[in-house]
Specification:
Blueprint (H helix, E strand, L loop, with lengths): L1 H8 L19 H11 L19 E5 H10 L6 H7 L3 H14 L9 E3 L6 E6 L2 E9 L4 E8 L4 E13 L3 E14 L4 E5 L3 E5 L5 E12 L4 E8 L3 H5 L7 E8 L5 E8 L3 E6 L5 E6 H4 L7 E2 L10 H4 L1 H8 L3 H25 L8 E6 L2 E6 L9 E2 L8
Parallel strand pairs: 1-2, 3-19
Antiparallel strand pairs: 3-4, 4-5, 5-6, 6-7, 7-8, 7-9, 8-10, 9-10, 10-11, 11-12, 12-13, 13-14, 14-15, 16-19, 17-18
Helix pairs in contact: 4-5, 9-10
Length: about 400
Amino acid sequence: MAEDEEIRKHLVLVKPISLEDDNDPEHTASNVIRRILSLFKNVRPGSDLTNFQLPPQLNLPRSQLQCYGEMVYSFGGQDLLGECSRRELPIERLKSVVTWNLSTFRPVVFGTSPYNPVVGETHHVSNGYINVLVEQISHHPPVTALHATHEKENIDVTWIQYYTPKFRGAYVDVEVKGKRVMKLLNRIEAYEMDQPRLIMRFLPVPGAHWAGKIKIKCSETNLEAEFHLLSDSIIERFRGNNNNRSVKGKISESSSGDKLYDIFGHWDRTVMAKNVKTGELEVIYNAKENISELKPPTVKKPQEVMETESTMVWSELSEGILKKDWERAREVKRAVEEKQRESLKQREASGESWVPKHFSVVKNGKDWDCSPLQPTVPRAPLVITEPQGES
């Protein structure tokens, strides 16, 4: 018991990013824009920011791995992932996949950033029947792999994600690469999904938002969805019209191109689907029900927490940030980064290359792909809620 309590003390579990973070006065754009611009005063436009290091004052008390995992395991309402397989009609399943995809978007806390994960870092959390495992499979460039499985509905989700941030003077353009695949194994269907871009704008009005086109396609059902995350024009932002979370798109048959539904709304409010034949409207997503008042995981089985767990790797840094002990935070951050550099030197000296523990990785030029080594993700020691009927 004493050892379990010691492990719990070393785990800093913070509330997931949710809609409430938009109104947090700690991160208002006016408070952070001057600090950000001071960081970039010697950075030339077009520079690659992949290796750019932020001071602790601009870090969120969580790793980027946790942010990726939260997109899948953290939700406040209905189990949207399980719903994708429960629907009987193919068109209803595709609409459910669109709904689940929308639920993975979270507000971006402008002016702050999660920690850049160290290679080999992991994050393993369960929520109900959903088990999620994330691993950092490369540090330079930063590449993350995610595997999630739904025990009850036999759903398998794999992501590989890597990005290239570019400084464009008035904004930073983050191109997110990789692919997302959801397999409904009971239905023998696979849904492939694109990933959006992240735009962090400094001028004329500071802010951060998701943008770009997302396509979801299922070859087995001959159905696809395509929607755009729309960005405001500079003129509209000057006028104070905030519409940079709007969604507009369609669902159609892949072979004929015939449109079946129009999709429109805002991913931070509600998104509607309109049947083009009948004119019937339905709300397919309600952000307030799903990404509000989110709860952090709790430590269910301390002895099973891996040493590579994000909350273990960064616990002291997170404590320093939460206590605003910036000197301590800087020391801890340097220590973690120095440990990673030393491990890299040792591998290079011995001619070894890093081998991920949970994923098989394929690299083709600048492109990455991966597949999980295990068919399902086991129940995690960090838990949000137990499956119904269990304790």
